[in-house]
Predict the 3D structure of the following.
Amino acid sequence: MRNISDLPRVTLGLYPTPFYRLESVSARYGRDVYIKRDDLCGTALGGNKVRKLEFLLAQAQADGCDTVFTTGGAQSNHAALTAACAARLGMKAVLLLKRRGVTERKGNLVLDELFGAQVELIDTDSYDEIDAEMRRRAAELEQAGHKCCLIPVGGSVPLGCVGYVNGVREFTVQAMAAGVRIGHIVSAAGSGGTTAGLLLGARLFLPGAKVTGVAVCDDPFERIVPELVSGAAELLQCGETGRPGDFEMVENIGAGYAVPNPEDTPYIQSLAREEGILLDPVYTGKAYAAMCRLLERGEYFSGEDAVVFVHTGGAAALFAMDLG
Ligand SMILES: *Cc1c(COP(=O)(O)O)cnc(C)c1O
């Protein structure tokens, strides 16, 4: 296996992020529930995309890029974090965002501007169309002497997933130091890269731990996640392949992607009030509420080992939309 540190990487977050037991939640469900605070990674409002961008933007730098294109919904956390990280590295960020959802200057659109990104709202619901538009614009800029890097939605390409392989390694060390055995890992799934990275990381560093992705949109994760696992495993030359069926997907889409689910609000409120932790209504609130409902049911999380919730960020949405 290749060492992860053989891949180009730039430091963009303050790692390790905290990992600790959620006392109130553990007491309520009679189960050890831990949280990995990737919302506290030290860049902008934090979030999972920073781990991916450490690898993606290092590659862009190595390729001599001065401009980074990416895409997402109008309130994309990934786009805002790409803007933040690109700015720090002296690269220009161009964000082609779907004109879908909250397009007032709120939440992440405020941050995009603060980080100096060029933002354009595109009237389409198809990422294929946006990808074609990114390629067209990148070609134009390259004609004018620039060098561009295109990051697809969510940074969910194999190199981005490596960020979460590394993330698992990080909390494996933290859990060992705390004498905690990890049985389950839960996080939100939007474009699938985080789930894929967690899954490959678990195979490598926590064999026996089960990964559950909570889908917040209806993409075909059963296909996407194993493909990403295979791609990331190839980069790491670790001899693993994506196998459908060795991870769990549960859904909490509610009325749709980025539409707050009123049934999740009590869970978002309780974590805020008991632990001072912010969850957003698009990703982490849906994932956390789904995890709590599975804990309520009892039998889903087999064994006695700890359940780890990976907090993937997203707080900016709280300033852009009402809870359901
Ligand atoms: C993007 C995002 C996710 C989903 O991660 P994927 O790797 O796209 O599946 C989860 N939570 C937050 C806050 C995000 O911004």
Observations:
- The beta strands are 19-21, 33-37, 67-73, 92-98, 118-122, 148-151, 182-189, 210-215, 248-251, 306-311.
- The two ends are 46 Å apart (CA to CA).
- Residues 86 and 261 are 33 Å apart (CA to CA).
- The chain has two domains: 4-48+157-319, 50-155.
